Amino acid sequence: MTKTAPSCRFALPNIREIRPFLTEHAAQLLVQAPVISRLDYCDALSAGLPSRTIKPLQTIQNAAARLVFDKPNRAHVTPLFIALRWLPVAARIEFKTLMLAYGTAAGPAPAYLRSLPRIYTPSRSLRSASERRLVVPSQRKA
């Protein structure tokens, strides 16, 4: 994570120089390749980290959205994220982690991952028994 932010910060000014010659769609593609893909790389490892660790990545994503639409630094990014169909960094991390958990429980994941999650089976009859909940592993070290 410490090297992700500087590498993304390096790409944004270079794209900003040629931004006047690009359409919004071309700018979006150009930003997604070097910047957003780096933000997404190994983001499952960032799950559960404090917000101060994720904030530099969020700042870069905000700058990338403003660059795509050629907006000033004061522009609010939520409408830009909606137009681009991007989630904020923390939500992206949570979404990808949940999709990985769903994939391992539902079946499209590789066999070595499907063996990891355990389905919760209550000891008595509960209404939630049909929801296919997962067992939360213990955090204590044995």
Q: How far apart are the first and last residues' alpha carbons, in Å?
A: 29 Å
Largest sheet: none
Instruction: Tell me how many strands there are.
Output: 0
Q: How much strand?
A: under 5%
Mean pLDDT: 86
Elements, N to C (H/E): HHHHHH
Q: Tally the structural domains.
A: 1
Low-confidence stretches: none
What percent of the residues sit in helical stretches (DSSP H or I)? Answer: 55-70%
Cα Rg: 20 Å
Which descriptor suits the 3D outline?
A: elongated
- What is the SS-derived class? mainly alpha
* Number of helical segments with 4 or more residues: 6
Protein name: Molybdenum storage protein subunit alpha
Organism: Labeo rohita
Please tell me about this protein's structure.
This is Molybdenum storage protein subunit alpha. By secondary structure, the chain is mainly α. The chain has one domain (4-131). The chain has helices at 4-18, 24-40, 51-69, 78-84, 89-106, 111-114. The chain is elongated, with a radius of gyration of 20 Å.
Provide a quick synopsis of the model.
With 142 residues, this protein is an all-alpha fold. The protein has one domain (4-131).
What is the element layout, followed by pairings?
Elements: H1 4-18, H2 24-40, H3 51-69, H4 78-84, H5 89-106, H6 111-114
Helix pairs in contact: 1-2, 1-3, 2-3
Question: Characteristics of this structure?
Answer:
142 residues; 6 helices; single chain; mainly alpha
